[in-house]
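Why should sequence recovery work at all? Because a backbone constrains its sequence more than one might expect. Tight turns favour small or flexible residues, buried strands favour hydrophobic ones, and helices have their own preferences. The token representation captures these environments compactly. In the example below, the structure is given first.
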């Protein structure tokens, strides 16, 4: 199933983002469109960075204490930053596409649903497969989002790198692309198909279910639990337990664990552990040094 999702995400990145996005009615607080068609001399450079036509979308939603960000994004980069003293969700979306007629169909929508501030990206419904496989068609929306510091977030993302800073509890469902999280004041749950994951500075527990790609987790006031298909796993400075439930391939290294270090199932790759205050439980054939 994960491989199917990853393949769909790749096609979406090239053509139109997430196939089958629910396009129910919602309200955009702000909507700015600036369409740019570059001159012939600049088109070659523009195509190399996949932005022959571009536009900007903006959304602002008022939020209060205890509200949650619910964000669904397709292809494109995503940055979400918590700001002290902010009482709004502010979104700037940069649309990039190969087809001028798609500009009006690429959108960012926002609305309040109870205590949730809901942000969704909308992509054109196109099936121009001939152009797609020749690499001629693309559509993406790069999002920059500002929220109150420590805000809880539920994020579903198709493809593209993700950078999150200064948030609270996080729930992330991601198909592909690098994930970087810094300074979370709550627990983190990640379900990821592929891509590197780096997490630093968490006050809460961290749970990761990852298909492929390296994982690095540093400075956690809580426990860490990891299931990983392939890729190196590095965990450092954790006050609680570190539990590796499953690891298919790749080395495992931990340093500085206040609780127990447990590896339940491990395929190939070395296991190294240092400065573990609690019990160490690893497969018998991997018990060497530490």
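From this structural description, the recovered sequence reads:
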């Amino acid at each position: 199933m994960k491989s199917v999702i990853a393949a769909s995400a790749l096609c979406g990145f090239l053509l139109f983002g997430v196939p089958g996005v629910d396009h129910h009615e919602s309200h955009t607080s702000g909507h700015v469109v600036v369409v740019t068609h570059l001159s012939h001399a600049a088109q070659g450079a523009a195509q190399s960075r996949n932005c022959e036509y571009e536009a900007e979308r903006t959304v602002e939603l008022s939020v209060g204490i205890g509200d949650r960000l619910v964000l669904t994004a397709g292809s494109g980069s995503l940055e979400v930053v918590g700001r002290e003293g902010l009482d709004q969700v502010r979104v700037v979306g940069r649309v990039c596409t190969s087809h001028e007629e798609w500009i009006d169909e690429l959108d960012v929508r926002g609305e309040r649903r109870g205590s949730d501030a809901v942000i969704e990206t909308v992509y054109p419904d196109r099936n121009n497969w001939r152009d797609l496989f020749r690499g001629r068609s693309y559509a993406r929306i790069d999002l920059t989002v500002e929220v109150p510091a420590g805000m809880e977030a539920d994020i579903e993302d198709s493809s593209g790198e993700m950078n999150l800073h200064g948030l609270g509890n996080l729930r992330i469902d991601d198909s592909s692309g690098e994930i970087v999280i810094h300074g979370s004041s709550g627990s983190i749950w990640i379900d990821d198909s592929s891509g590197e994951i780096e997490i630093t500075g968490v006050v809460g527990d961290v749970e990761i279910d990852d298909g492929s790609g390296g994982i690095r987790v540093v400075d956690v006031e809580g426990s860490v639990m990891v299931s990983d298909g392939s890729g190196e796993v590095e965990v450092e400075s954790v006050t609680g337990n570190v539990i590796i439930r499953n690891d298919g391939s790749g080395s495992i290294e931990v340093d500085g664990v206040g609780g127990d270090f447990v590896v339940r199932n491990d395929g190939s790759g070395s296991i190294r552990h240092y400065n573990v205050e609690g019990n160490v439980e690893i497969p018998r054939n991997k018990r060497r040094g530490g």
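A few observations help interpret the result. Confidence is low (pLDDT under 50) at residues 1-48.
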